[in-house]
Amino acid sequence: MYRMYEDMSVEVILERMIDRVLEQDSNIDTREGSIIYNALAPAAVEVMGMYIEAQRILDETFADTASREYLIKRAKERGITPQPATNAILKGIFKPSTLTIPIGSRFSLENLNYKVVEKITDGQYQLECETLGIEGNNHFGTLIPIEYIDGLQSCELTELLIPGENEEDTESLRRRYYQSLEAESYGGNKIDYKTKVGLIKGVGGVKVYSGHEWNGGGTVKVVITDSNYVKPHETLIQTVQEEVDPVASPGEGIGIAPIGHVVTIAGVNEASIDISLLATLQPGYEWEDVKSQVETVIDEYLSLLNKDWENQDNIIVRISQIETRILGIPTVVDIAETKINGIEENYTADKNTIVKRGVLTNGK
Hints:
Blueprint: H1 10-24, H2 35-61, H3 68-76, E1 87-95, E2 106-109, E3 112-121, E4 124-132, E5 141-142, E6 144-145, E7 154-162, H4 170-182, H5 190-198, E8 203-209, E9 219-226, H6 234-244, E10 262-267, E11 269-281, H7 287-307, E12 316-317, H8 319-327, E13 332-340, E14 347-348, E15 353-362
Parallel strand pairs: 9-10, 11-15
Antiparallel strand pairs: 1-4, 1-7, 2-3, 2-6, 3-4, 5-7, 8-9, 11-13, 12-14
C-alpha cells in the first residue's frame, strides 16, 4: 500500500513547527517544558491526526486500497454489488414413496433446518437449507421432522443439488470491479455470457463457445462447474438453462440470452487421475501414517487447477507441482518415480474437463 504521509510523525511535525518559530526569533526558548514547546506539542498531535485521516481518505478513494465498505460504493458506480449468500438445495428421500410430503414441511439434521420446496418424483423432494452459505453443503443423513407428518416412515438427505454460497468476499468483488474495466460486456458477447451466467446461484466456472465453435450460427454453448468447482448436478444445469434460454422457447429472448441466441447449457466433464509414487519417509513413519496428508495436498492442488479451469484452454496436472507439495509435508524426505495414470509425465485434460484424484499408491 502506498503511503503518502508515512514520514509525518508527531516528532517531525513538532520539529517543523519549532523551526518556524525560531525563524522569527532564534533566542526563544523551545526546549521541552518551555511555553512554546508546551503550546506546540498538542497541536502537533492534532495535525498528525489530520495526516492519518488524509491518508485514510486517499486509501478509500481508490479500488486497489479501499476497504469493503468503500469498495462496495466504488463498485456500485459500475452496477456491481456483492453477491449475497444463498441457500443450498439438496435431495431428500422419503418413505413410503407413495406419501405426499407437503411443500414447506420442515426437517432438522444436526444443527441445521431444511424445508421442502419442490417435488422431484415420488418419494424424492428438493429441500432448501434454511441457513445461508456453504454450511448447508456439507451435511447428509437422517432427517427429523420438526412437525409430525402422518404416515412418514423415514426421510434422508442424500445429495447436494445446488451448492449454497457465502456472501461474496472483498477480494472477489475487487476482481470483478477490475474485470468490468478491462473488458466490456455487451449484448450477448462472450464476456456478457460469462459474467451473467457466473452470477447465477450455484455456478462457479464458465466457458462460452460461439456458433462456429459449437453448432452453427445463432447457437451458443455454455459449459459450467458448480460453485464448489466440481461437476454440476443435472438439477443445476437445468436451472441455469431455464434462466439463460428456456428449453420450451429457445432463442426467443425470454431468459438472459438475447433474441436469436439458442443456448445450450452443459456441465463440465470430470476425469479421475490415478497417481503412483515412491515416497521416502522419516524414520519411524509408515505410508499409512502420511497417506491422508498426501491426499489432502494433492486434492488442494487439483482444486486450484479446477478453480482456474475457465481461464485455461486445458488443465495441465504437473508432476513437479505434485512432488513439491508432497515434499512440504514434514515427514516426507523424498519423492521419486511419480506417475499419473501409469505414465511419468504431466497430464493434460480434455478441453471441457476438470480433474479429481483417483487411486493413490506408494511403491512400484
